[in-house]
Design brief:
Elements: E1 11-22, E2 25-37, E3 43-44, H1 47-62, E4 67-71
Parallel strand pairs: 2-4
Antiparallel strand pairs: 1-2, 2-3
This protein binds zinc ion (ZN).
Residues 3, 5-6, 9, 37, 39-40, 42 line the site of zinc ion.
């Protein structure tokens, strides 16, 4: 698909690192499958993967961890 950020790049399947920040918690999730723009590097998560990533981040926030690095496991 065409990248909506830079409007010139095309996205391709790949692996990215997602960083989410909520309140005092930073969650870094590595090895997340995503569509990645070959021009600007913006990534797009599919619906089920995004849900999973946000659910993981919610769990970390609830444990009041300040920084956590996770690995996405399918
Ligand atoms: Zn782009």
């Amino acid at each position: 698909m065409k990248c909506v950020i830079c409007k010139t790049g095309q996205t391709h399947p790949g692996i990215t690192t997602v960083t989410l920040q909520r309140d005092k918690t930073v969650v870094v999730i590595r090895d997340v499958p995503a569509e990645i723009c070959d021009d600007c590097g913006e990534y797009y998560l599919s619906e089920p993967i995004a849900r999973r990533v946000y659910a993981d981040a919610d769990g970390t926030v609830q444990r009041q961890v300040e920084v956590e690095i996770q690995r996405y496991a399918a």
